[in-house]
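Quick one: structure tokens for this chain, please?
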Amino acid sequence: MTEDNEVFASRLLALRKQRGWSQPTLAKKVGTSGAIIGRYERGEITPSIGVARKLAEALEVTLDYLVGDNDLNSIRDKAMLNRWQSLETLKPEERERILYVIDSLVRDAKTRQTYRAGA
């Protein structure tokens, strides 16, 4: 098994288990069998690009994350990814204003988290 296939297999398995799905449940969502999902998870076979895309969609992750090209698992949330893509359509000054507010909110949340941990 290649390193790329190992990453795909382990991420597929972990994501399926995180959602509490059986292999047949995931298989039904992508139009294959539970046995095939098991073979993907063991790294015995690799899906076609089309099937890999369906797996990523069912698991609500990017295809890049699933195949190991992107380690940012925080971008697994498709709704969040769509929000970021929407920002790209805005004028630069609007985008900067929104990012400034986001940065402020994140900083404040981290401060509160640190304060609570020290209490």
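The chain has a mean pLDDT of 88.
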